[in-house]
Amino acid sequence: MENKDLILYGAGGHAKVIADMAKGTAWTIKGVIDTNKGGEHLLAKYPIYLKTENLPLYGASRWVVAIGSNAIRKKVVEELRGKPFGIIQDKTAIVSEYVQIGEGTVIMPAAVINVDARIGKHCIINTAASIDHDCVLGDYVHISPNASLAGSVSVGEGTHVGIGATVIQGIKIGRWCTIGAGAVIIRDVPDGCTVVGNPGKIIKQRNF
Asked: What InterPro entries does this protein map onto (predicted)?
C-alpha cells in the first residue's frame, strides 16, 4: 500500500488551504517545514518544524511544496531533489480520468480540468479555475482562482495566470509570463511577458 503520509514545505496562506483540503483526501499531514517558523507555531493543527529539525517519517513521506510563488517553489523543489512528491486534489474538484497530472501539483476546491489536458509538475490549479480539453501546462504554472482556459491552450513553465483571467482557445502563452487579473488573452504571448487588460496588451517583456 502506498504511504499516504505528507509533509508540506511552506507555512503561509497557500499552505493553509492545502492543509485544509487534505483533510478530505487519503493524505495524512505529518508536519510542516518553514525556514522562518518553528517551535510553538502551528499551521492549523499541524506542527511547524525548521528545515534542520527532525521531522516524523522524514524519509518515508511524500512532499508538497506549498508556496505560491512559482520561482520560489521551483527553487525549493530543486533543493529537495530526490524526494518523492505527492499530488493533492480536493474532493470537490472535477478532473477527467484522461488528464495527466505531474508530481507535486495541487488542485484546489471546485477546479475543473477536462479530458486530455496535461498538467506539469508542481503546478497550482487554484479555486474554481477551469482548464478545458487538450490544454498543456508546463511545470510550476499557477492558474489563479476563477481563471479560465479554453480548449487547446498551452502555458509555458512558471507562468502565472491571474485571478479571473480568460484565455481563448488555441492560444500559446510562453514561459515565465504574468497574465494580469481579469485579462482577456486573444493572441499568443511570448516568453517573459506581462499582459494586462481586455483585450490583453503586453506592457513588459524581460529577456531570458
From this structure: AcTrfase_PglD-like, Hexapep, PglD_N, Trans_hexapeptide_repeat, Trimer_LpxA-like_sf
For 144-181, letters b (16+ CB in 10 Å) and e give bbbbbbbbbbbbbbbbbbbbbbbbeeebbbbbbbbbbe
Residue with cell 517573459: 192
Cα(88)–Cα(86) distance, rounded to whole angstroms?
7
pLDDT for 92: 95
Q: How many CB atoms lie within 10 A of CB 51?
A: 13
Sheet of 62-65, strands arranged across: 42-43, 46-49, 28-33, 5-9, 62-65
C-alpha cell at 130: 477551469
Those residues with Cβ within 8 angstroms of residue 169's Cβ, 6 or more apart along the chain or in another chain: 132, 150, 151, 152, 153
User: Which domains does the chain possess?
Assistant: 5-79 (3.40.50.20), 88-199 (2.160.10.10)
**Residue 2 CA: distances (Å) to CA of 48, 60, 115, 123:** 24, 10, 26, 22
Model pLDDT for residues 9-61, shown as the tens digit of each residue: 998 889 999 998 888 788 888 888 887 765 556 677 777 877 645 565 555 68
Q: With contact defined as beta carbons under 8 Å apart, do 143 and 124 qualify?
A: yes
